[in-house]
Structure formats: C-alpha cells, structure tokens
Specification:
globular; about 15% helix; Alpha-D-Glucose-1,6-Bisphosphate, Chain A, domain 4; 15-stranded mixed sheet
Amino acid sequence: MNYLLIACALLLLVSSVAVAQDEPAKPGFTRLKLGEFWYGMYRPDGSSEGYSHLKFSETRQHGLHCEWELHISGEGWTYEESRQISFDADWKLSYSEIDSNGRRVLAAREGKVMVGKSGVDDLRAEVSDDAITGMGFILAACAELRKGAKFSRTEYNEAQDLKDLGATSFACVGQEEIELPEGKLKAWKFTMQRHAKTPALPIWVNDAREIVQVDWGDGNLMKLHREKTDALFKPAPPFLQQLEPDDKTRLVLTADFHGFKLDEMWKLWATAEGLTKWWPQEAEVGDKVGGKYQPAWRNAEGEIVWQLLGEIEIWEPNRKLGFSWKWNTDPAEAPTLHVVVEFKEVTEGVKVTITHSSFDPNNDDQQNRSSLHQGWEQFCVKLAALKK
C-alpha cells in the first residue's frame, strides 16, 4: 500500500476542510455588536421628536434577533411602533413582527414560507432565502466594512403582510466624519437602495459594528446616545376631543377652531380651493348631493398614489357636509365608510364635529379607526394653523 499517497490525500482533505471552516457563513456577514442601543430622533433643525431603541441578542440556534421601538411626535401627530426581526445562523429570515396603531402582523419561517397572523387573519407568504423586511437596515452593521463592499437582499413589507418589494441593495461608500452627542467620529457610510425612484437610505456604522446614525429622509436623523433617550418623547396633548370612545362603529371628533367665520370654514371643507390649503395636494369637489368628493395625492413623477373616491351624501351649506369614504387602493370587497362634518358658530370661531362611521367592531377595522383618528388629528391641526 502506498502510505505516502494516502498521507497526501488525507492532507488535502484536511486542508480543504480547514479552508471550508475558515470561510464565512453565507452571504459573508459578521455578527454586529450585541446589547441595547438608545437613539434620539432629530428633525432637520436639530430639535428632537422622540426616541428609538434597538436590542440585539443571539438566539438559541446561534442566529441574530433584533427588537425595535420607535416613539415620535410632532404638531398634531404621534407615531409609535415596535418591530422584531430574526435571522438564523445562515442569515435566513426566520421571524418578523410589527405592531403599529393597534395592528399586529407576525410570521415565522417554515421552509420557503412565512406563516403567522395579520391582525385576526391567517398569514402565509412565500419568501426567498435572502429575504429581509424594513428592519433589514441593521444588516449594514453586519456587512464588510470596506469602501465598495456591496450586497443585496429581497425585501418584504411586514406592514403589508410581507408583500414582495423586490431587490434592495446595500453599498459601502467609505468613511466620513459625523457628529453624535458623544462628539465627532469617523464611521462607515452605507446606502440602502430600495427602488430606483426612491432616495437611498444612508446608514452609518462604526468599527465596533454599532449603528451610530441613520438618515430617514430630508435630514431627519437617528443618532446614537450612550444613555437612555426615552425622555425625548414628549407628545403634545390632542387637539381633537374624542366623543363616544366606546362606540367601536364610529369615530366622533370635535374641536373649536378659533378665529374662523362660519362661511370661511365651510369653504375650507366644501371647495377644492379650500381643501387643498390644509389636506390634499389637489381635489375635485362637487356642489350638491351626488357630486364628487375626491382629494388626491401624487408622487414625484406626477402619478396619483392616493385618491379618495368619495361622493357627496349630505350638502347643507354652513351647517353639514357628508361624503362616502373609499380609497383607490382599497380592495373591491372593502366596505365603504361614511363621514359627516357638522359646523356650528361659537363665540371664538367655529366648532367642527367629524363623525366617521360604519366600522366593523369585530375585525381589523379597529386598526383603521385608530389610524384615521391620528390622520384627522394631524390635518385638523394644519387647518387650525391657517389662523395662526
């Protein structure tokens, strides 16, 4: 027997195993720094609008788990959400969850499928091996810290029942100096590009593989702090008062709008010229029952993205306006809601009462009801500000 030949073969086998062990787990990511991280959320002018919190831990299967909280507010609005994402040891998406405005969507991997719940409904969505969700931005801290390093993943929208959004690419454009509460430092800048027509999301990572800054768009920054930041969340008291909160079939909101005349307030609701001063980009509004009530919003390319396909149901000038409520993006089987706006002259201006009705009290309509509450709050604050 040729022992030299056997020894050489064994040496080659051991060498190949050693090389395989030295190779990083596909697709070449490195574990980011584990632990808890607190961030301040800042407007372009430097003022704070709240905080976020990230927590990274290792799973029992040697994967990565991330928990996220976001709490922000501004004039007339408050937004809070929590999300979770997990990857297994091979960097496959294994779990996703979002809880926003009372609606929860969660799913765990079973082979090529994510199975879970969307509100009260069952969820089942096919996903690729390279799947990520919106929380996938954390992978910038796991990538190679080198100018020119690139990778891509297939993104799924967890808020839309894991809808396939297509390829999302990441690229490291090099190091640059940034300003944090702890001082200036150099960090690696990554760009996360979701779609050719959307701005890239810049993410900065330090050498310790901590996410130190994210630009969420138009200079709205998330900056790492070395202490808790929950005190930065200071939501303003609501402008609208909610009446009959226990009636889940309706949303009834009211407020006094100081400084307005009755006919002036009517025109702000019942004409396209008035409506576009505080709510949509454009609108088509009729002047009688059966006429159109269709506020609309366009994207940067001029395409209508959202349009309310409403029809006027009540027309009593200076007193009461009613219209149906259904969006161009709603499924055909989605029920039509109804809005009645009542106007009453008071000492300091006009009292406006909004009744949004026909919600189903037993399903995910309650999440929609909660979202509409926030929407009316935000836009009515803009309406009131016309007299400031």
